Amino acid sequence: MTDTARPALPERTAAARLIVVIRGREADQYAPVLETLAGAGIRSVELTLSTPGTLEALPELLERFGDRMDIGVGTVTDPSDLATAVRQGAHYIVTPITRADLLEAAVDVGIAIVPGGLTPSELHAGWAAGAAAVKVFPASVVGPGYVKDLRGPFPGIRVVPSGGVDLEAAQAWLRAGADAVSVGGPLLGDALSGGSLEALAERAAQFVAVTTREAGA
After folding, report:
1. Model confidence over 32-69: pLDDT tens digits?
2. What are the pLDDT digits (tens) for 101-111?
3. Residue 155 burial (CB < 10 Å; 0-12/13-18/19+)?
4. pLDDT value, residue 216
5. Quick check: pTM over 0.70?
6. Residue 202 CB partners (closer than 8 Å, separation 6+)
7. How far does the chain reach from its first CA to its final CA, in angstroms?
8. What element of type H or E holds 117?
9. Which residues, other chains included, contact 114 with Cβ-Cβ below 8 Å and sequence gap of 6+?
10. Does the pLDDT of residue 217 top 80, yes or no?
11. Which residues are known to be catalytic?
């Protein structure tokens, strides 16, 4: 697929180069965390379908936070869930797998999708089918040098590492040429289980400082 026909990541997400993955026990945990993240400069979050109630909560969250951040839906593994996420207003889609019908459905409706894979075959298949970028998962298995390895045979491929990406690894992946990093636990910490939102804001600001394109990282 040509880049002109490929649905691209939203501009805020592309400029931020940071997607915060939020996986909670239930969707009513999202709002205070999103408020804190938005205040700390986070511009893109992925709300996961492994959190019950995510799709139902999405329209209200978009109304409240959509002017400050992109809100994507992740852990999408079925075309019907993708269709619902699109209908509810998701800004982009993330999936841990490379599944042809998911990619086809996303491209058909013009929404950016980031499919997951680890091997060159998986990652190229997602990219060739129209992914906005491919998610290298789990990124900790291969390390930042994998970006160069992939771009040898696949020069234009856009890479977003996910899984075990802490602050140091985020810097290393971006220096290596990753288009963005996907970060969960190292940034969220215990915020979804009663932890300090002030501490969450501090961690988020640290990540923003090293990932935002304007910061020159």
Report:
1. 999 999 999 999 999 999 999 999 999 999 999 999 99
2. 999 999 999 99
3. exposed
4. 43
5. yes
6. 40
7. 30
8. strand 113-117
9. 9, 92, 93, 94, 95, 131, 132, 133, 134, 135, 160
10. no
11. 46, 135
Amino acid occupying residue 106: A
Residue type, 167: L
User: Which structural domains are found in the chain, ordered by start?
Assistant: 3-215 (3.20.20.70)
Helix, strand, or coil (residue 98):
coil
- The one-letter code for the residue type at 122 is E
Q: Kindly state the tokens that stand for 161.
A: 């590492």
20 beta partners: 45, 183
Phi and psi at residue 157, in whole multiples of 5°? -65, 140
Outline where 66-196 has alpha helix (H): 79-87, 100-109, 120-128, 146-151, 167-176, 185-188
> Which amino acid is it at 205?
A
> Which contacts of 113-122 are long-range, i.e. CB under 8 A and separated by 24 or more positions?
113/7, 113/82, 114/9, 114/160, 116/162, 118/142, 120/150, 120/153, 120/154, 122/98
Q: Which residue do the tokens 């979050």 mark?
A: 45
Confirm if 46 and 72 have CB atoms less than 8 A apart.
yes
